[in-house]
Amino acid sequence: MVFLFKRKGWYVVMGNFLGCKSFAKVSILLLILGVFTYLFSGINLKKVRKDYPIVIGKGGRGEIRTNKDDGIAIKVSVFSDACGDYKDEFDDQEKVYKAYKSLKHPKGFKERATMLKPYEYSEGSDPYFCVFKMERLKPYPKGSKLLRNLVLGEESLDKKDKDKGHMTGLKQAKKIIDKLPRYFKDKSNMEQLCYDFGRLAAIMQLVAKVDGYDYELILSQSSSGDIPYKISIIDFDKVNSIKNEFKEKSVDVDKLAECLADMNITPKPTSKSCYNYFKQGYLDLAKQLDKEKGTTFYSKVATELFEVLPDF
User: Fold this and answer.
1) What is the dihedral of CA 130, 136, 139, 145, to 10 degrees?
2) Count of Cβ atoms closer than 10 Å to residue 246 Cβ
3) Half-sphere exposure (Cβ direction) of 13: Cα atoms closer than 13 Å
């Protein structure tokens, strides 16, 4: 006797295998399992692809999709080894977003600089199928087809990649931002962007307590406030928790610096204006934490980090 039942997305064959004395019979049972899995899997996946028909990015184990209506982007994978990683990334992104929301920010900061909001992680009927829903970022300037991936450690970079976005260096970013009306009394638009980036980086490392390995910095449209653009830190699939290091007050500042400088995202000291404002944003967030917690520990970590960052 053979029958099937579904458990956590898997169709399981049960039966009297002791009666199957031949390899052929076992093979037939496995074939039945395969057919049922094929027939019943992918139903949710088809619906997801119908609801989110626009592919805006691809990676080694999945794709990023969206639609024109609800402001949501999804990462979807049909590879068996990806879903656990997607769940870990969702958890880390949620941790960073909660850290960002937990703080008091300067006026206008939340309109100019954000951590990407995660909505939901779920698994479909296919055990290899999982979806990670998050806030959608729209390309800036309007009319652009690709998100701008800021690489501020590169003095000049202007390279389009359909999967990675529009790779944009410091010179090109400055040209885009500073041609707009000046929005700030004491800083240029680009200088304020660099300062805000420093604050975001500090939230990621000092508050959420993840190292930031392989993160990305995105320039996109802003949906609120007077400024038409915003920056966001995204991509937490490879970050590592450093919570215990803070608990034990043994933070590896070399590792933090290496992660910040990875892929040339942070400005170089040779780009004095942007680098100095980035540094100031990071240090100011550390001072805010010390004031709130009655300590000097965070400023000490931040100061040591910037002593070694130029070496990476």
Assistant:
1) 40
2) 17
3) 17
Q: Domains, the chain, ranges and CATH?
A: 2-40 (no CATH), 45-311 (1.10.510)
State the Cα–Cα distance between residues 254 and 189, nearest whole angstrom: 30
Q: Give the DSSP per-residue string, the chain.
A: -EEEEEETTEEEEEE-GGG--SHHHHHHHHHHHHHHHHHHTTHHHHHHHHHS-EEEEE-SS-EEEE-SSSSEEEEEE--TTTHHHHHHHHHHHHHHHHHHHTS---TTHHHHEEEPPEEEEEE-SSTT-EEEEEEPP-BSSTT-SS-EEEETTSSS-EEEETTTEEEEEHHHHHHHHHTSPP--SSS-HHHHHHHHHHHHHHIIIIIS-B--TT-EEEEEE-SSSS-SEEEEEE--TT--B-HHHHHTT---HHHHHHHHHGGG-SPPTTSHHHHHHHHHHHHHHHHHHHHHHT-SHHHHHHHHHHHHGGG-
Q: What are the tokens at 251?
A: 């933070």
**Residues pairing with 167 in the sheet:** 149, 159
Q: How confident is the model at residue 37 (pLDDT cuts 50, 70, 90)?
A: very low
Phi, psi of 202 (to 5 degrees): -70, -40
Whole-angstrom Cα distance, residue 199 to residue 298? 13
Task: Please tell me the distance from the alpha carbon of residue 278 to that of residue 201, in angstroms, as a whole number.
Answer: 9
Partners of 118 in the beta sheet?
134
- Give the tens place of pLDDT for each residue, 53-95: 998 887 767 889 999 888 899 999 877 778 888 899 999 999 9
Written as six digits, the tokens of 255 are 């590792």
Q: Which amino acid is at 1?
A: M
Beta partners for 241? 210
Q: Which residues pair with 134 in a beta bridge?
A: 73, 118
Beta sheet of 216-221, edge-to-edge order: 113-115, 229-234, 216-221, 148-151, 165-169, 158-161
